[in-house]
Structure formats: C-alpha cells, structure tokens
Amino acid sequence: MIAIILILLSSSSNMFVCGETWEPSWSKEAAKEAEKVAAIECSGHGRAYLDGIVLNGHQPLCECNPCYAGPNCSQFISNCSANAGSGDPYFLEPFWMERPEKSGILVSGWHRMGYTYSDGSYISEMLVKHIKKLHQLVGNVVTDGRFVVFGGGSTQLLNAAVYAYSPDSSLQSPAKVVATAPYYPVYRTQTQLFNSRDNRYEGDTSIWKQNASSVNATFIEFVTSPNNPDGKLTKQILNGSNVKTINDLAYYWPHFTAIPSPADQDLIIFTISKVTGHAGTRFGWAIIKDEGVYEKMLSYLDSNTMGISREAQLRALKLLDVVLEGDGKQLFKFAYSTMKNRWTKLKEIFSKSKRFSLQKLSPEYCTFFKRSRDPTPAYAWVKCEREEDENCYEILKAAKIDGRGGSLYSAEDRYVRLSLIRSQDDFDILINYLTKLIDQE
Amino acid sequence: MIAIILILLSSSSNMFVCGETWEPSWSKEAAKEAEKVAAIECSGHGRAYLDGIVLNGHQPLCECNPCYAGPNCSQFISNCSANAGSGDPYFLEPFWMERPEKSGILVSGWHRMGYTYSDGSYISEMLVKHIKKLHQLVGNVVTDGRFVVFGGGSTQLLNAAVYAYSPDSSLQSPAKVVATAPYYPVYRTQTQLFNSRDNRYEGDTSIWKQNASSVNATFIEFVTSPNNPDGKLTKQILNGSNVKTINDLAYYWPHFTAIPSPADQDLIIFTISKVTGHAGTRFGWAIIKDEGVYEKMLSYLDSNTMGISREAQLRALKLLDVVLEGDGKQLFKFAYSTMKNRWTKLKEIFSKSKRFSLQKLSPEYCTFFKRSRDPTPAYAWVKCEREEDENCYEILKAAKIDGRGGSLYSAEDRYVRLSLIRSQDDFDILINYLTKLIDQE
C-alpha cells in the first residue's frame, strides 16, 4: 500500500511539477539568451538588446530614452530638451512588449542561406499573401491583380519608382520629378544624390500646374497621403497622360487617419515602420498595377541590393501574423487609442494659445472604425502665428522643444514639425515643455 | 519516517526527472516553432523553413535541391541538368547544421524598433568590432584606423563606392568606371542602370592602360582579388593620381585562396555571403581609409535605404560569434577542406581531358594555414580547347551541365564558369555529368 502511494506520488510530481512536456533542445541557448536580455531592468526608461554594447560586464548596456541616463536609465536629466524631431515609432513598442510569446522569431543558423526563394525571386510569397490580407482587412488599398515589390524601407522603393517611371533611352528628355510643399525632403535629396541622366528634380508641383500636359517630358509627381509633415489627405495636382504619380501612403492607416476608401492608384508605397512600428527592420512594399513598371522596379532592386534581407522578411511575416490574428483590429485599436489620447492632450494645451497653432483637421468617415473621426496624424505641424516669430524652430528650441523647422519640408520657417509617435517618455517631456511655454503667454 | 521518505522522493523526482532548472517562458513558442520546422524531414535533399509555403497542411513545404522533387524531396529526377550557375554558398550549410545550439538567434517582438542605434548611426558598433576581430584573426585586411560602412550585400556598396569616388560637381567630367575582363558583370550593369551624370562605364581597363594619367577625369577601377570568375589574385592596372580603385575582396578568404598578406588598399569590400555562406542575409561591409570617402558612402546608404536591416546585423553578429569562437579556425578548416576535396576531384577528372581545361593555378604561401597551398577558387573557369568549340556553354548544356557563358564576364564564349560552392547534391550531379562527358572523348 505504501509502495503504491509512493509510486503514485512520484509519478504525479513528474506531471504536475515538471510542467508541460515540451522542452527546447537545440533552441535552448538562443531562447535563454533572449529572455536574459529582455529581463535586464532599465527602469522603464530604456531597453537592453541582444546586440547592445557589452563592456567589462557580461550583459548588454541599457540604451536609455532621451533625457534619461545612468546604468539602468533611472536618472532623469532635468534640463534636457524634448526630442520631437524624428519619427521613430516607439509609441507602438508597448503593444509588442505585451505579446512576447507570439511576436518572437528564432532564426536558425542555416535559415535561407541562398540568394533566392524557391521560386527564384527575392520576395517571400508568404509575406506577399500576408500583406494582401492586411490591406483587405484594413480596406486601405486595392490589391486584386496587383504586383508587389519589396524594398529596404519605403526609402529604397521611392527611387526604384522614379527609375521605373523615367525614360529608358537618352533620346527622350529626362523625367521631371516634382513634389508639393510642404513635402518629405527625401523625394528631392534622394533624386539629387543619385543624379540620374534619366530624371531630374524640378521643383514644386505648383510651378507646373498650368502647363504640365503640354511639356514634352514625363512628370513624376510624389503624392503623400496623409502628407508628411501636416497629416492631410491629398490628391495629385498635375493632369495629363505624361503624368505619373508615386503615391506614398506610409501613414494611410487607422492610427493616423480615417480610411474613407481603399486607394487605387497605379503605384502605391508603404512601410512597416508606420504600421507595426519596426523602422529598424528596413522593410517596405510597393503595390503596382502595370507589369512593365513592376519589372523595372524588380531590375532596380536586383541591381541595387539583390533584394532585401531574408531575416527582415521573416520578421515582418511574424509581426504580421500577430497583427492579423483574431479580428485583426487589436494593433489598430491600440495605436489609434494612443494617438487619440495624445491629440486630445495636445489640442487642450494649444487651445489656450494665441501664439502657436496646430494644423486644422476635419473629421471624416472611417470605413475601418465605421464612424466619423478626427485625424490623429503622426506629427503636429505647429505654426508661429505672431508676425515677428519668423523662426519657429528657434523659438521652440529655446523652450527646450527640439522639432524640425519648416524649411526642411520646403515650407516657411514659421512652421515646425513635432513628432508625436515616439515613446511615452518623449511625449510626456514634450507636453511638459509645451505647457510651460504656452502658460507663459 | 514514511512521510520523510515520501517528501524526499517527491523532491528528488523534481530535480532528476524534470531535467535542468531553466525553462523558457515567453520564448517557448518561438523556440518550439523553430525546432518543429527544423525537424521536418526532406530526405537530406532539401530544407523546410519557417516562412516556407504552407498549403492545406500545417507545416511549411520542403524546398528541394535542384534535381530532387516530391513532398520530402526523395525523388531524384534522372535527366535533370546540373545547376552550376549561381554562387549560392550552400557548401557551408553543413557547418551551421552541425552547430544549431550556438548559431540560432531569437529576435523579440520589440527588438530595435527605432531608426538608429544608440550612437545615432545605422551601424552596429558590436558588429564592427567583430568584423575587425575577424580580419585580424584571418590576417586578410589591415583594419587599424579604418572606417567601416555596412551595406545590403557587397552589391549595395559597389555603387556607393562609385558614387563616393565620382565628382561632386557637374563642372568636372564624369568619372570613368572600368573593369578588367573577365569580370563580374554587375560592375558594368549596375553603373549603367543608375546612369548617374557623375560617372559612366567606359569599358575594359586595358583600353586606358597607356594614357589614364593624362586624361582629365577620375578613373574608378574595379579590382577583384581573387577574381570572379577565374579565381586569380589580381592587382590594379592603371596608374596615376587620378585613379581610384574599388577593391572587391569578396573571395579573399582561406577557403578559396592563400592569404599571402593583409590587403591594405584605400577601399576594400567584403560580403558575408562568401565567408559564412549567408547570401540571403544581404550583408556586406567596406573598409575605408579616407574619412571624406567614408562620409560620402554613409550619405549614399542614408539616401538609398537609411542603412540596412537591424535583423541582418543581429544575425551577422551571432554568426560571427560562432566563427570567432575558440581559435577562430573551425569555419575556415571546414570550408577549405570541402573546397580542397572538390578541386581534387575536379582536377582528377579534367586531367583525362584534352577537350576541356581548368584555369591554371599556382601554389602560394598562406599566412593563415602557415604553409604553401594551391588555390581552391569558388568557380571553375573551364575552357573549350578545340578550335571549333566556340560556344562552350552550349556544349556543356547539351551534356546536362548548366554553367555561365564566358561572354557574361566579358570573355570569349569558349569559357564557361562552373559554380563549385553549391550543395553537395549539386556538386555530385556536376561531377557525374563531367565524368560522363570527358569519358566520351
């Protein structure tokens, strides 16, 4: 009897105390290493990464958020300026930290060593499927019958698109590349750096408004919707059969704007940076109608980098797996909720100001959330209203707010772009200084 | 007494039956998923990957090696041609499969979401350190005091270097880009695709040999050593203060060539594809002497893609961790041993032939292996010796050997490049057909 009890007890403790049956074999080291680094405490004001700097100690250093310092980022630097410059999408980090189980990916030592996928291309077929599903779910782009090309961020695809729309022969005039102020400066600086004989940056779209169709050259018009920096939904300006548009819809997601209808233009570009928040992954995609344009963009990607990292594509696949789970709305609800709260706070502060104003934003019906809603753009496009306040960037800088001056976007310097998509730490510091500044009026 | 025994037994079964103490928590799903896919049997003639096509079943399909087919790649297609075309470095795959524990990396859902590392750059400082260590260990490049830039494969760095060496102003003549036949066609096709006003592909280096220094323009000479396709160690041809060289040392590793001395030129480019075998990662680096050239290349990388994938850099770091372990020679011994065996077999077969010949290869002293050794290049550069055999590619193709014709490398079509760095399956099939072909003479 005692023997039976002993045996039962020993067996039961195996099942109930040892836990579930699966245990890692070869993956253990990688899993352990990742959990160890994730457990490094950075006071909630920083992060340690697997590839962070390792000094004399044996674990990577905490990398602190702006205005925080110290070995575990617990020291707040009191007179430190708010970082409201770049669009690093850290506002989405909490979403991923709440889902560690589902969002990690273990890349084996032998993962995809070859140059191509099994179909001979540089493009993951499973990832294309996921992207089309994502767009169908959100309803922001028509994807039926379209071709898809991947690039290193939308950045690489912008020039690939300019190349694809430019003439093939030197017998034709170079294409004229235009953008409408205020616009994302890379459209101009990138085109100028590459300095191709087949195209040339030709200034603001408005110059060509009246006579584009009568010019003997192709126009390549950048249309950004929502626009960066001011968040407005835009349409192309030039008309004519010689006008091609590159539609940069990086921000056309429910977290930033209503989705009135699915976009349907011939060439549309997206980036994972502004949907899941993974800017460091360098992954963007173009949705293309015309097969000839698609083939030209593939040639460009082949020549430039022979496609993009297999790891970036694998990671994007895993992240989109998580996004598409269930009703596929969790990420967008989280992101929209954060942006809405931030805009509510911002509008409240600016409502007290006569000196500074925000861009005007009108509500629109959103087919994703199925109701009318205000835009909640990634950036505040602040205007210094006083006539003498010509350099808004300097005025805000003196008030410890580091934004980006309007002239960077080919607008007047009485405008400043403030990033609202960084971490909660960055946003809190920004709100603090804005409150102080406006209280002084 | 019985109670004590019971307690002891319960506790001991926890320790000895449950196994070691560490168990994964949030990393479990990623680890389990990776092990599951790795366990998919593809008969040793294919591989299943985490992002492979998933049909009605619940696991990714086996992706079969050339000439193998079926759901688990067990069917050999008997009249299928040998794939001896591209340089997919599968010959290194067994090295990584033998080290699954050390070579995997688990990327968390929140890994490096921002645009930059903590120093504001796109370049992982830890990875730069590893690369310098690697070069010191192998002794193939001088890295002291040099700048390092990363790119999407060496591919992206080639054009970044052409850009960096080209004039900044349209007042100067475009730089003349040259390469020496037989050469890797991308130097020409890439320069032509980008078609920058600041440079132009100007033909074979030999045309300019006599008068380069008297021409009022910069020459940008591509020097590939060992050369692709013929594996020879080369030096620059043109002389003059107006001559800049881009030194593509992708194959300058002990698996392919003796290392007589560390390379010391002003701009040297490498790719992880040809050292660890991870061509799909799209990771290359340039080692640069001049700070101005370094800054220009950084601008190019910024404009083109805003740096490269953080996942690619993390993966490269992990892989180099493994390479640098112990005496740091394991990978090179493995790789050299494979290449040596393959060349021994190849030379044996070709020794019986009067119709076909291999490139002449002379032994050289290697500072890495500390002895004289024959080159073991990545490619055989086969020549059809009979006068009437003008198209060697077609002759080999008819004999079921699919290589690359000499004209692709700007050489005569009586040459064919055969890839010797693919999988053992590919090499065995190649040897089989070569043996048959030469036996027929």
From TrEMBL, chains A, B:
Protein name as catalogued: Tryptophan aminotransferase-related protein 4-like
Record-annotated Alliinase C-terminal domain positions: 83-437
Description of how the protein assembles with itself and partners: Homodimer.
A Gene Ontology BP annotation from the UniProt entry: amino acid metabolic process
SUPFAM superfamilies: PLP-dependent transferases
Secretion signal span: 1-19
Native source organism of the sequence: Senna tora
Transmembrane spans: none
